[in-house]
Design goal:
binds arginine; five-stranded mixed β-sheet; D-Maltodextrin-Binding Protein, domain 2; alpha/beta; 274 residues
Length: 274
Amino acid sequence: MKKLNFILLIMILIFALFTGCSSKGNQEQPADNNTSQETKEENKEKDKKLVMYTNAEFAPFEYFEGEKVVGVDADIAQEIAKDLGKEVVIEHIDFDSLIPALVTGKADFVAAGMTITPEREEEVDFSIPYVESVQNIISKKEAELKTMDDLKGKKIGVQLGTTGDLAVTDAINLDDGDLYNTGAEVKTYASALEAALDLMTGRIDAVVIDKLPAEEIVKNNADNLVTVKFGEISEAYGIAVEQGNTELLESINKTLQRLLDEGKIEEFISNHSN
Ligand code: ARG
């Protein structure tokens, strides 16, 4: 009997100890309440914002109008945000930093006339395609660079990390590449506009960049520059999200499909083309 009492006593003690601990834990919480309330408010604010990253040196898809980033992708982003009842915030960075910004969670999505490629798909998830493109060559009128063959031995400017960069680098470096062992060189720039400036001053012979942006650059320098198709490979642009962010991706796809059905993307392109 005594033994039983003793065991009972121990059990009561253990019980008291546990409830004591937990009630102590509860007492500590009110002290945190303020800050958790604040973070909740902050999160609510954050929830209303949709952060898009881009590289705004790629008209008509994204370019600066004063301090503001505008263009086809910005218009699409407004529609995505509208459909979600949110407000879009657009940040401009270097093109080759866009995927890292998604992977590290800084951006909700990237809309940058970005071509869907198998390599990029290993790091991010892409929306349905919304624009088709090819690469173009920009050169000086008098140089008469019309085909890939004419690029042999030439200095070619590209925007770092783009599919144009990859296409030219491969053509030069791969032993079955069109420009292999021809003395052709690739020069990388932060933007195609910077490359075009070097083209104008004769530091390079050509720039390879997507068709519509190439045409925009040429329109603005119509006396000096021309542009022709670089290759046959057709590319499709997609909006990128962090891998596994299916909720956002689904609503982006819905908005894109609606815009495609309504012919809006074509409209945005012509609105932003000179
Ligand atoms: N479509 C090309 C690519 O994905 C070029 C995109 C450049 N976009 C930009 N916003 N600068 O590599």
